[in-house]
Design brief:
Enolase-like, domain 1, 3 domains, 4-stranded antiparallel sheet, globular, 263 residues
Amino acid sequence: MYNFDIAKPTTIADAVQALTADEAQPLSGGQTLIPTLKARLAMPSTLVSLHAIDEMKGVCMDDEGRLCIGGATTHATVMKEAEAHYPGLASLAARIGDPAVRNRGTIGGSIANNDPSACYPAGALGSGATICTNSREIAADDYFLGMFETALEEGEIVTEVKFPVPEKAHYEKFIQPASRFPLVAVFVAKFADGVRVAVTGASNNGVFRWTEAETALSSNFSADAVSNLKASADDMISDLHGSAEYRAHLIGVMTKRAVAAMS
């Protein structure tokens, strides 16, 4: 590690102000950032901790029937408090990492980092969520731009994520045992006006919607509807854990399992 300053604001306004300092970077749960600092892959001069901002914590329902989760809310809290309102999302949170990660990592940190194998981006994109920042609201379809890339601007932080609650949803995750990240995972959400299918862990471009499956499932919500569909292996991740073709195959398998679990 190396020497740096740390700011501990207690309000969103103070956090935004602290981030105007040269080479300042927000620190949420730190599950990705701290290892990055240790490896000297990032060397900010100031870390702005979001941990003490109470207005960015908690789970509730709003007047529009959306599940609203503060950006500094831990995975463990989502796992417990979202269960009654959105069990599909609570199940996703319950399977992130291990207990240590779930008790420290936050939804805002995950959404802001947008790791190509992270779980929450699939939940947000599959739900058609709205990502709220200190200055605006961004639809999930417009927020996730590519591997580790989002629509966030310099000094902008994720303060809340608002999830429309579907009729039913399920997250099917094929775990890479060493990291606990998904090798491939699929989040399927069935709404009154159609089905959304989001895939994580598979693509070099990060989380994405499998539109062919959405069309098929919106017409016939059954595992049989996607039995003959094949995801393209183009731009899929290929590494020692699995080839691009294998990941493309798993997308179909995970989607069928997710739909079957809801039937």
